Fold these 4 entries.
Entry 1:
Amino acid sequence: MRHERQVELLERVGASGERFAGLHAAESMVNPASAYTDEGRFAREQQLLFRQGPVYFAMSCELATPGSYQAATFDGIPVVVVRQADGTLRAMVNACRHRGAPLVSPVGSGEGLRAFSCPYHAWTYELDGALRARPGSAGAFDDVSDDCGLLPVPVGEKYGLIFIRPEGDAPVDVDDHLGGAEDDLGAFGLENYVPIDSRTNTWNVNWKLLLDTFTESYHIRTLHSTTLAATFNSDTVIFEPFGRNLVSIGLRKDVLDELRKPRHEWSLLPYGTIQYFLVPNGLVVHQIDHVETWRFEPIDVRTTKATTSMFAPKKPHSEKAHNYFVKNLEPPLIHFHREVNKVVAG
């Protein structure tokens, strides 16, 4: 985040008054319970948001080298994204054109892939999806005029972030999708980060309610009374919309100490948990010394799969340093959301 931007946000905090009341919204919003439970609405969300997209897929550093790949599923559409020899990305439906068998594990990732080979009949595809061979077919398919290459999926990459459009062929315009958040996100240098580890959990909660837990700090004083409450403010967050996306910044209790320094020394980063919501399914969180991402996959109206990943600004120099980041991923982060899940789903 640019220094000028940090100063701007700190000025808002400084002018917000007692208990940061000036950061509150003008009025409360009341959501009907049906927004989280209605099956028909959930089906529309899946079609309009998750299928038609764009949706967040991964950080660029997770697919850093040619042949590195990652797979995920969006409303039943299996997608694999792979780094090409020229450094670009290709995204394809993760299904052989013969019998539809998955070419890689639907939740798999890896490096050094040279070709896709179907485990059913060994049909083989180049990394760009072009059909390479149909072994042992003895020319049986030579009269098929259809293009039997893998079905392409639009993919876009910028600012160290990867987005796809699971259904349709419209290009992915990353700047348009970010809606203004690109200025902030571009300044973090996300493309230079290093993957540390990931965890995937399935929770009994609607996908929106899971995201709701990130948008407010009101719960800190009670749910985290013996941990975070000692250092984090529980009165408010800084909120700012970016098109359909938003940033929500949780503040440490001592944030006003920064305003006592000369203005040119001001920095928000040591005092804020900066969370960018990339609607519908992505969350990019900047902490003091690392970045974490969350990717959500709704299974049904009451069930959500969440993949949490940890990234460091540079490769840890030792096992101890590596384990420091892992400890920030598990158990604290995952435990936090397991406990929230128990509360909101119970």
Entry 2:
Amino acid sequence: MSSKINILFVVNSMHVGGAERLAAEICKNVDKTRFNAMLCGLAGDGSLVPILEEAQVKYFKTQKKSGKDFSLPFKLRRIFRQNDIDIVHTHGQGPLLYTWMAMHLFPKPPKPLFVHSEHIDLRMEESSFPKAYLMNSVMLPATDAFVSIAEHLALVNQKDFKTIKNRITTIPNGIDVRHYESSGKNKSKMLHKELNLKPDTRIIGNISVLRPQKDHGTLVLAMKDVAQSVPNAVCVIAGAISEAKSELERLTLDLGIEKSVRFLGYRQDVPELLECFDMFVLPSLYEGLPLCLLEAGACGLPIVTTDVPGNNEFVQHGYNGLLAPPRNPEQLAQCIIRVLTEDGLSLRLGKNSRKKVEQKHEIGRMINYYNNFYERIYKKK
């Protein structure tokens, strides 16, 4: 190949979410001898910027205005042309919309190849799905390929959008396990000191943004039963602050468990936090393939999560975690209590979590798939 393939990833913002983190990791790790990867965040500055700068990844900020911003397609087209972009890979609905519009501003070929990834099942967003379905029915046929981050999302999109059925490739999410040490007997006491916890405190950890999808309310409700059965257990929730925080705090007060549930806000020291946890809990209502579960698994943590697609794609009940029905605080509490009290269970689940990440979700494996995928579709151009 005479020159490198220029790939531009388009994400919603420069804030660190699952889609943004995945795009940044691909930019950082793709084969630099074959690809020149860049990233465009539609809205604002955020914690993704220093990550990209440290990795020397070229990035663009289009400074999206609130609401619909019809200047973005022109800005994107300018970026495509000035940087000779060969492949555009969008992540999420906003990037899909504005890139689709930008593609229609090219009067004639050559246009960049158009790849899209969706990180959740759009049907779960009930209020917006009818509109999203209609828009995707129009936009997705214009794409050259669709990359699914999880098997269940591939099946959903094959069913919902039959015109792209033969263009779907599944590349499961992966993480760099070198950033996460397998938890053992000598666990970090950083949080014990920070929160002034007793030395024997068992920490139940959750790292996820405070939004309805993650259903932190069910976790808080579950903690009432957990606190009665395991009095030295404390639930620690780390995630970007939203209006939901005050509601959750009121709930802890109503239940009388305000000392058993702590809110840390947004944290960048995720590996260090995970090293403080005795277990990881994710009570979400729906997911794609959450990176936080992979990170917890890489740390060798036992996991309790909800039995919904995405979560149950990584967690096998009784093997590397326990599954509870969604919106069921009683069942969630029982699973948490089992992990904290049943002899040998926590260690066995944690070891298997680390093993599964190493075997199926290590970043090198994921990047090899992306390297081959981008080269394959480029050769068909």
Entry 3:
Amino acid sequence: MSIDPAPPLIPVASVTTNGVTTLYGDIASAWDAAKAGTVECPATLKLLKNITVDTMLSVNLANASIVVDLNDKVLKGTMANGSVLYNENSVGALSVVDTSVTRTPKYFVRQDDGLWALTNDVTDLSVTGGVLTGGKASGIMCYSPLTLTDVNLVGNSAATGGGGAVYSYAELTAACCTFLGNAAALEGGAVFAHGNYDFSDCRIEGNVAQLAGGGICSYAHGTLAHTSVVGNRSATTGGGVNVKLSSGEGCFAAGTKILMADGSEKNVEEIVEGERVATFDHEGGTNSSAAVCLAYAGEGMLPAVTLSFASGAKLTIVDRHDLLAQTTRKYVTLTTENAADFIGTRFYNYRTASWDGLVGVENSGRRTSFHSVYTTRHVNCVANGLLTVADDNDFVLNVYELDEGLKADAGQLAADVAVYGLFDYAEYPQTAGYEEFYDSLNMQYLYVAIGKGLVTWDYVWEPWRGNGAGAAGIPSLDRN
């Protein structure tokens, strides 16, 4: 009797840990082995063939440290949703490199949605070396430090969020990399960076964001050395790079109750544009209501703080938000860093129509989602009873000198307009298509705000800077 020998192993990947290299015939086993070998030391997973994955390669180890070597191969995701590589723990580290000395060309075609897609045909869109492509919730999503070296991130997308190629929550370092033909539904067509970043000798080109930062959207400090950022597009701010060091942009945690026009309440994450919510009309000096012209939702890992008031009201803000203070009768910005300095300050409670003292501040950890509401002309809204406005638009309301009834001094406003003038769209043809947006947010007093030092022209001009900012996608706004 003879026994047929076991079929030879056809390796697709190797894993090296503690100096020992093992071959694997499928990527799932290799990935599991790499994770298992990373508790005490890094493991290197090297692609030996082009690999397609239909589920995320994810890590969730406290001390995970994995090096993925693309080795001149293609790592392609075909999942309906999710990232190709996903490290959900903030302690370990992930590196993606290409150590191959042979770098062969890979060809792509540009699809109607702007994404680049792999093709077997020779085209004029190509890269050489290892490629990571096909991510649907970012090519790489990483909560821990991420290092990229000599790799190409091409044709990835974030269908419902930001960071088409990379969504990074911690430090990000990229050297000699290309980010081409990626797209994001929100911010950062190629890269969304919550942590500090350092790019050197990189190429960031042909990426698209439907909200901001066609190439990069950053909520931290970073450097770009010998790096080209060209041909990227965003619908609003920063066609090439959009930097927002105040990351939450005046947002609320999910579950915050927004007062509706009919007196009911609704969770902020459920608010949609066009709905009417309670507001305060400072020009009229009365409670009012207005349509929501922008319901913003973001995602990330941002610090939050819960504010407690004498009335018993509590409000959790993500990163920062503005409340109307009694001392100045101006909207002031409370952040996760300065909120404790405002203990004892009284803020306007819309529900009680009185000033409500801040009595406590508690760190609320981090939030993975945050939300904000902008209202037509009145701009403000009521959250958990407090009158609020997003910090990036507080200057629109702080042009007013308010009396004790919170009504704007019409005479002072007229005098300011006489000095500084009203914003005139016709003077700035670059703003074509934004008139409805700016009118809805009460921007006719923009020159007054600039003249009184409440905002700078550079801040306002930013939406039209970059590699194609404002190309398309401004939301249709209800102006009723």
Entry 4:
Amino acid sequence: MHCCDVILYVRLTNEWFAKDTSRKVKTAFKAKFAAGQRIGAYAPIGYRKHPEIKNKLIIDEETRWIVEKIFDLAIHGRGAASITRILIAEKVPSPGFINFQRDGTFANIYAGASEEKSYAWTIAQVKSIMKDETYIGHTIHYRETNISFKNKRRIRKPQSEWVRVENTQEPIISEQVFQQVQEQIASRRRERKNGTTQIFAGLIKCADCGWSLAYGENRQNSKPYGYYHCSKNGQGTRQCSMHYIRYDVLYAYVLSRLQYWSGLVQHDEERLLKRLLNASDKGQAAARKKQAAELKKTEKRKAEVDALFSRMYEDWAAGRITEYNFNMLSGKYQSEQAELDGKIGQLQAAIAAENQSAADAEKWIALMKECVNPTELTAELLNTLIEKIVVHEAVKSEDGSREQEVEIFYRFIGKID
């Protein structure tokens, strides 16, 4: 064999071997990921590596408060930059410094460095934590990959190709809080040229098309004023009507409603809770009682059918009934079992929804207690209490007066006005 052929053969063999090894490694990783294992050099802040189970995370009680603080600030309207400044001002240790203190890693950065280095948070770090599903108990794999087995440079994969494995570790943050933070990130408030931000940004929606309302200013009057209008109408296509509302009118209305509910919480909390739950409606109370009784009755019948089916099988196995009768009764019992399972599921879901409604109402009342007698609106206050504000098109009367419906949907409880 010619020497050039030998070299070519060796190269092809090496390439095939490298490619095959890469394939085997990927297959092994896929199996581990599917089993809920987490592969990584370091545990994310708020977690530790399990001391006994390999590739498993457990909550780190010493640092979970940092994650909870970040999400608490975010849910109250703070952006990543603002949160970063707070963490630095309060001298909260950064993830890298915590790893250095515990394991001596990153010594090249922290050993002998000034104190400021220990809490040198970056906006990118905070953003990463705010978007990380690790904190709701899930793990995302294959966000990045090598270009090929020959080129080890990492590239970002499309989100459609990510692999999401749920319930891989105990969550630190609730799913509801996490989703609310994602919504706020998506509708983040951009600072305007004069240094101010719009406190209603991301909250105001058009009643007809569902698009966000855009902010504008009328500077032609002697007294300039701000206003909102449907952003779909503002594109020039006239696909929706204006839904015009002045900023000061919206501000005054929303503040008045929050002041009303705040007063009710302070003076008659029990009455408010009943109002939120419609507990004064005896018909609903009777319906809940009937659901509970129906569930108990259905579960009892299900247990009876299961026992009958079990005895029938024993009779068939012992030859006390024919196979024809067994098949006939078997179909009948299995059909009833499926029907009863479905009914039990529906009743349990209805009762759980009622219980969740009570819990959500209590959560909202607790939030209102934190915002006693508000005298002004802030982004933090609005994001704490309100999910969205829906603005309808104004209706003009014959006398020229203008009426406009504005719906406020509060967090946890929805529309109550």
